[in-house]
Design a protein that fits this description.
Helix content: 40-55%
Distance between the termini: 52 Å
Number of strands: 10
CATH topology of the largest domain: Rossmann fold
Structural class: alpha/beta
Strand order of the largest sheet: 6-2-1-7-8-10-9
Strand content: 15-25%
CATH superfamily of the largest domain: Vaccinia Virus protein VP39
Length: 296
Amino acid sequence: MDEAATSASRLEAPRPLSRRQFEQIRRLAYQQFGLDLREGKEELVNARIGKLMRRYGFNRFEQYQQYLEADPSGEALIELIDALTTNVTSFLREPAHFDFLATELAPLWAKRDQVCIWSAACSSGEEPYTAAITLLEQWRGKPGPILSILATDISTRALATAARGIYPADRFQSFPPEWLSRYFLRGHGRWSGWYKVKPEVRRIIEFRRLNLIEPFNHPQPFTLIFCRNVMIYFDKPTQQQVVAKLAACLEPGGYLFVGHSESLAGKTAGLVYIQPAIYKKPVAGEQPVRRLRGIR
């Protein structure tokens, strides 16, 4: 094919995925990420894959498939999962969690030596920064525990944004103005309308890539784990496996926060219900409020 024909070919709109091609993407997403692309997702997958194909000038699925298979870095696969999932986040998202953190947990932990938190699907970083600031605000002017936060995500692109800690003003719509001035630097000039996390907040958090469906362990148990709005992408067996692994990483008396559209299950997880989207790993001998009944 000559150069002119190649250019013309690249200008054609990507062809919709066949049923067989959709099943290929479905299997790949499940095997690599635990992502459950149920029946009825064909239109969404076509639109998202089509956008990726246009970005690289592909008009046939086979070209995109070859690109995926030829990428030794794995970044093409991560780009695919970014495209197939929705990363909607902001500061103080699902504020009931942060109210509970401020009013119930911060006083409970105030006399501890250390508090270790894991943001297990941190996306672009708003969640772990909000958790850090919520606790720093409660302990401000008082001797408090050493606070450390591990923030992980499958997406290297999201983690890069999180590590930079620079956000547009519209991410702070529910954020108290005094917190914004206390914990962020305001941008000027070409950065007007942007805010950067101050170093004293940034150094509390370690960002690291992690795929929740792969084996993982941590040398130290966590006081609190956030795993919000990620299990909705998994099927029930994968959800149960992930919940069990998260529960194993909690210290006795530790808490697990999930998304308000999610509910947990599996007696093997050993967790008890506290209030919507909040669960606790009981201390030995502690009477549970209610056992978990199912993931839906």
